[in-house]
Amino acid sequence: MVEPVGNHYVVARPVYSENLFNEEHKKLHRYHKTFWDHVKLYFRCSPQRVKKIALRLFPITSWLPAYHFREWILSDIVSGINTGLVAILQGLAFALLVNVPPSYGLYAVFFPVLVYFIFGTSRHISVGPFPVLSLMVGGVVVRLVPDNMTENGIPMNMSAINEMRVTVAASVTFLSGVFQLLLGILQFGFIVIYLSQSLISGFTTAAAIHVLVSQLKFMLQLPVPGFNTPLGIIYTLESIFSQITNTNIADLVTSLVVLLIVFVVKEMNDRFKEKLPTPIPIELLVTVLAALLSYFLNFEEKFNVAVVGKLEEGFHAPVAPDAHILQKCIGDSISIAIVGFAVAFSVAKVYSIKHDYTIDGNQELIAFGLGNIVCGSFKGFASSTALSRSGVQESTGGKTQIAGIISAVIVLIVILAIGFLLAPLQKSVLASLALGNLKGMLMQFKEIGILWRKDKYDCVIWVATFLSAVLLGLDIGLATAVAFQLLTVVIRSQIPSCTVLANVGRSNIYRNKKDYTDIYEPEGVKIFRCSSPIFFANIEFFREKLITAVGFNPLRVLRKRNKALRKIRKMLKKGELQVTPKGLICMANHMHESDEELDNNRIEELDQPTNMTDLPIQINWGADLPPGITVPQVNIHSIILDFSSVSFLDFSAMRVLQKTLKEFIRIDIDIYIAGAHEGFLDKLERCAFFDEEIKPSMFFLTIHDAVLHILLKTDIASSPKLKLTE
User: Sorted alphabetically, which InterPro entries does this protein's record hold (predicted)?
Assistant: First the structure.
């Protein structure tokens, strides 16, 4: 019964053990579905289920009929035009990261948008190339088709190399799309939870460093080969600085000017975004101006700058991926598939929360998988979403993926009609535009200090991810980072927080005794809490902490007591001890015998419960013992284990826990377990945890129930009246 008294409450109820509570309150029998029940349910077929699957597989059928044409169409058109212009420039710029001709970047910002329009669930992200993903694809391209590629011992010309590189990029994109599609069909959308925010932040920051280094050769116009190996970034920098004197000054000056303008205007866009109706399209303005200057001043001939050149018009016929290439890039494709999905899902989740709608992780995998399959078939490269491009689509008023279709139309116009206008554009300008989009990623360095103050484990994950991705490469670095992150989880669970509790304020509240002054500890009672699951990797740590908390090793005490009983029996047999009303009296000067002689190679007997039935007197281990006989003192009589935070206990840990509890019980210490979750006792019973020494009656609902039971038991033991009442 609960009686509220002001801001206090008074509870009157019996002291409940688990058994007593279950006797008074009968539990409902609930049927728990088996694995096969879930399988049958998943493959069940009905008209309603077919309709539900169709609506989930084609989200466009849900949101398009509900489209508010009059209210939204103008916003989507404006947003689509702005996003399309940015997408064109980013497609050309990110193609340099993939090491393919710039025109193929336009395919990467066209086809995925069309597929996502039908299958995607986010209304605001702009699908297309992402610098990290482009760099990962470029790493595979450089590894399989290096700059010094030969055929029959004869160096290949650049056009042949570019053709092979396009094939490699398309093949790895196709395969990553297949992996994403399979993960989506198999409902593996949860895989993104294994990439923490700290890991993603450290990884994208490292990728930004790789992008920065990879674009230096275009900004300086130096012939730098690709190094897709561990420490490749070091070799790239070494190659750049070894030929720094050959820098094309015109490209360098152009790059610095473009970078300065882009950074300044982007900063103005951020600072005055509340006052500006739309962000200033600085990438478009810079590109138009740079192309005009390059064309009319003839930069290519005068200063020997590298230009985009003629863009291919129209589309290539779809082609099947190269099976020989697919065999060599399986690992890379898995990394690209996971990273692409993780980045896109993270951005989509931000906008879904902001605009109050739901996204489906599994459907997103299917949408991006199909998008990459189609894009790879048409010789594009891997797509995800770029943060800056999605920001443009959302901030300029985009309401749905209609804005994405409008942006695709803008890209289509460039592919089919006006691509030739970009031919005189310097590659160094595209490189600068690519670097201009890295500001947000590079600013993530500030997170190191924040994470160090908030969570040092997350900070270590960030730094380890960054260093591994920078030094080992993005593919190996990602695998290393995920392994390291999981290792930190294992370490944290392997070294759980174990504390000794005490009663605070003479209430039913129990907290760490080191944190409070107004505490009460029942005499002879230790309350021990473990704040993590207990399993094979941390059970020994749990045991050591418990022994440290109570102040003695129960197995050592048990063995000492059994050794003492052996000595007492031997002395009684020789007449060296005499039983008196006051206890045992030594009748002779007893010579100390070695433990080895007494053990007589029967150490296993020392681990058994003490047996005094054959002695004429019960030994009081807390009283004085005969000379030459010593045992460790035990100053507690009860231990309460708080298992409220123990979510599971595996079989290996169960065996060790059972052995440990028996050691305490055999030296006359009562063990109680409080707060165990639902089903804990059932699992212990199934695993034959209980026996004559360890019984279900040791389990109590709460710590306070166990403490009250111990106090009542102590009072009963010390008071004949209470014994009579009981």
Answer: SLC26A/SulP_dom (IPR011547), SLC26A/SulP_fam (IPR001902), STAS_dom (IPR002645), STAS_dom_sf (IPR036513)
